[in-house]
Amino acid sequence: MIKVRNLTKKIGDFTAVDNISFEVNDSEIFAFLGPNGAGKSTTIKILTTLLLPTAGTVSINGQDPVSQSEEARRSFGVVFQDLSLDDDLTAFENMELHGVLYDVPDDVRKKRIKELLTLVDLWDRKDSLVKGFSGGMKRRLEIARGFLHRPKILFLDEPTLGLDPQYSCLSWGMA
Ligand SMILES: Nc1ncnc2c1ncn2[C@@H]1O[C@H](COP(=O)(O)OP(=O)(O)OP(=O)(O)O)[C@@H](O)[C@H]1O
Ligand SMILES: [Mg+2]
Question: What is the pTM of this model?
């Protein structure tokens, strides 16, 4: 599902990712560990088409995120380390927007949004604006959103940041 060969990313003279290689198979949960500044988020940004590699090759579900970025984007969902919700929309609207952008059909979309928001205990807050949510509530909404289009690959960059132990366990169970 994921192939990374001799991946390097330089930002100016600085090497943020230094010649890494790994593979992840279908149905595998792969944990990518390293100290702060090791290059984990930068690697995820390259795999999710947000940054270009300086050297090396990557493949996502058989597609090249560099030359086939649109096709590659259909294969994955992502929960970034930094929150990426729209604060001026409600929880439900954030989910809807994502579902529409990913062409999830109307009836399936409504059903899944209810299931996922219930799973992360936000169904009763579905009509509240996200700007009024706590950090952990926003994180739970982002995790739910990552699952909405049932992607083949789900990238989670420190998804339990800001979650209490109860929800931390829940999110690993969902993954
Ligand atoms: N846009 C940028 N401009 C300059 N340096 C950057 C940029 N993005 C990343 N870096 C540098 O690249 C290195 C890797 O950063 P990255 O965010 O990938 O680390 P990380 O492994 O995700 O760390 P953390 O555990 O703190 O999230 C760091 O030294 C960082 O300062
Ligand atoms: Mg990071």
Answer: 0.89
